Amino acid sequence: MVERATVAAMGHDLFLDAAVAEAEKGLAEGGIPIGSVVVVDDEIVGRGHNQRVQKGSAVLHAEMDALENAGRLPGSEYRKATLYTTLSPCDLCTGATLLYGIPRVVIGENRTFLGGEELLAARGVAISVVDDDRCRRLMEQFIADRPELWNEDIGE
Fold it and tell me: CA angle, 94 as apex, 89 and 100 as ends, to 5°?
């Protein structure tokens, strides 16, 4: 089941703030404004942002970058992690979430792109869609300004 909440209802979320900061960093670098953090025991263990443009990568989405920056963790750490991401995770990032057994995903917004949330939920991952205005504005502006880059990133 996908849960929808608002930032106001949830209160101030420092982990989502960190993901947004990563998205803004990616945009400032000339990339796609999507950010992510991996949280274990209320501590950020990995953070990242989409770097397909910056590094000429086919796979370095925000969630993949955050997982990479978390380094090698024991499976038990992933199984108690929460993945925060500013945008609904694509099939690639959905697969990584399932592969590592991450049980919770907090999504900043899913209006500009709806990824693998149904698959995650069907496989028992707790999904919370925050519907954060900052996340939505970043993506709406980016898609309007750079549609060709956005379409390349999502495989259109």
Answer: 130
DSSP state of 111: S
Residue 153 confidence (pLDDT): 75
State the Cα–Cα distance between residues 83 and 94, nearest whole angstrom.
11
Name the DSSP letter for residue 6: -
Residue pair 121/104 in contact (Cβ under 8 Å)? The answer is: no
154: phi > 0 → left, psi -120 to 50 → alpha, else beta; which?
alpha
**Catalytic, out of 22, 63, 109, 117:** 63
Ramachandran region, residue 71 (left: φ > 0; alpha: ψ -120 to 50; beta: rest): left
63 has catalytic annotation: yes
Query: Smallest Cα–Cα separation from 97: which of 122, 131, 58, 63?
Result: 63
pLDDT digits 0-9 by tens, 85-96? 999 999 999 999
Q: Model-level pTM?
A: 0.91
Q: Is 2 left (phi over 0), alpha (psi -120 to 50) or beta?
A: beta
